[in-house]
Amino acid sequence: MASYKEIFGTNIEVLASDPANPVEGQVWYNSTDNVVKGAAATTAGAWATGGALNSGRYSLGGAGTQTAALVFGGAPSGPTAATESYDGTSWTEVNDLNSARSYIGGAGTQTAALGFGGSSTPEPAGTGKTESWDGTSWTEVNDLNTGRFITAAAGIQTSALTFAGYRPSPNTSAITESWNGTSWTEVADLNTARFSNAGAGADNTSALTFGGNTGSVTANTESWNGTSWTEVNNLNTARFNLVGAGTQTLALGIGGEPLTGKTEEWNGTSWTETTDLSTARWNSAAAGTQASAIAAGGLIPPQSAATEEWTGAGSPLTVTFTDS
């Protein structure tokens, strides 16, 4: 039988620890663990358990990435102002929102986020309050033009979009507002008015919304090009109170109501069902990308502190070779 060197022209590397950024197909001997390892790629996405929130809650906002996330607001019973920061392992309580609220929208990163809308006291039917996070504390900035809650969002702290949401009458909304870092401007409406929908997108010029409640549960998906919304291919499973992560062309749709753990991947054209959440839930918070995301909190019911981390298909994977 040919040796590894005869086949590949080189010996297996001997390393005291795994390389920081191995390439797919690379093989090495870890002299600390006394095993042969190699770099591969995941063939299917999977959810794994992450660190639990300090405060179990639902209808909270989220921002950031899988390893550097921020969640804020929500409802453990009534609206809360609690904010927590995630380092990829555990959550730490940081400074509260100025205004406690549930069903809040969120965009941005762990150190530069935006929280807007929601249900609060004395505005249970929807507030326009917007707050900006600088990595340390929240500052009140210019309000939404139309107060509402259970709205979806996309973007970053200086370039965000919020769309749909619940209003006293009519309950469903098609309103879209664009944030330029200073103020909100009403832009073109969604084609289908709704609330409890999900959103994904990089900024206020490219976004995706999917699912929601139009008076009945919908699978409807729409894509935003910076000027108008276009109806595109529907989710495989209609639901509301789901959450989204990613961009206009590479997104995840996660969980939802009726109670489900279903996860779907969007490739810019269509949705594909993939691996379910370990714990079905709705009204959680999400952050990250299609390849690397997080889902935290939500209603099982009751409210949950559980965090799950998503690793998408094609992500780097270190495997250990055995003789069996």
Characterization of the model:
This protein has 2 domains: 4-41, no CATH class; 47-311, Neuraminidase. The protein is mainly beta and 324 residues long. It is 2% helix and 38% strand. A hairpin with a 4-residue loop joins β23 and β24.
Features:
4-stranded antiparallel β-sheet, globular, Neuraminidase, 2 domains, single chain, 28 strands, 2% helix, mainly beta, 1 helix, 324 residues, 4-stranded mixed β-sheet
C-alpha Rg, in Å? 21 Å
The tally of structural domains comes to 2
Order of helices and strands: HEEEEEEEEEEEEEEEEEEEEEEEEEEEE
SS element count, helices: 1
Write down the overall geometry.
globular
* SS-based class: mainly beta
Q: Could you name the ranges where pLDDT drops below 50 across 5 or more consecutive residues?
A: none
Any idea what the CATH superfamily of the largest domain is called?
Answer: Kelch-type beta propeller
Distance between the termini: 18 Å
Major beta-sheet overview? 4 strands, mixed
